[in-house]
Amino acid sequence: MKFTLKDYQRDAVHDALANLRKARRYWHNESDKSAFSLTAVTGAGKTVMAAAAFEALFHGDDEFNFDADPGAVVIWFSDDPALNEQTRFRLMEASDRINYNDMVVVEHPFSRRKFQAGKIYFLNTQKFGKKSLLVRGFDDKGGLFEAAPDAQLIRCGIPSRTPSKTRI
């Protein structure tokens, strides 16, 4: 980290990593999903705290006694593309272990079958609108293409209403 965490930030990162540790255990032992959130007042340094947690998640952290997760992927989801850009900038500003190439803005065309480990993917609600090219399966020339599983949102946890390998 480029910044020294304040005591309350360190406590919040510790709690977030404890939740990630539990989530990892639930997933590996039970194939059970879990969720948690990090909340704090405006100006408390949520993005700085997130950067510390992401560094530990991807690279491990002796201070927090947290082992790196080689398969970890972070999806940063908001309702505002400008907020995502601000977050990317702040993460790079706060972290000395997360760089520009580790952060991916999901744009059309996005044709990966799955997200790459060790990356932070930025999405916003507009990307999932019914007019969004990201989920409709159209190329830049306006033609149709064979739908890949990610185009049907299976990877994002949203069940598809159309069977696999159909034209959309």
UniProtKB/TrEMBL annotation:
Q: Name one GO molecular function term.
A: ATP binding
Top-level taxon in the UniProt lineage: Bacteria
State whether keyword Phosphoprotein applies. no
Q: Which UniProt keywords apply?
A: ATP-binding, Helicase, Hydrolase, Nucleotide-binding
Q: Which InterPro entries match?
A: Helicase/UvrB_N (IPR006935), P-loop_NTPase (IPR027417)
Q: Where is the Helicase/UvrB N-terminal domain?
A: 3-132
Transmembrane domains' residue ranges: none
A Pfam family matched by this chain, by name? ResIII
Q: Which SUPFAM superfamilies match?
A: P-loop containing nucleoside triphosphate hydrolases (SSF52540)
Q: What is this protein called?
A: DEAD/DEAH box helicase family protein
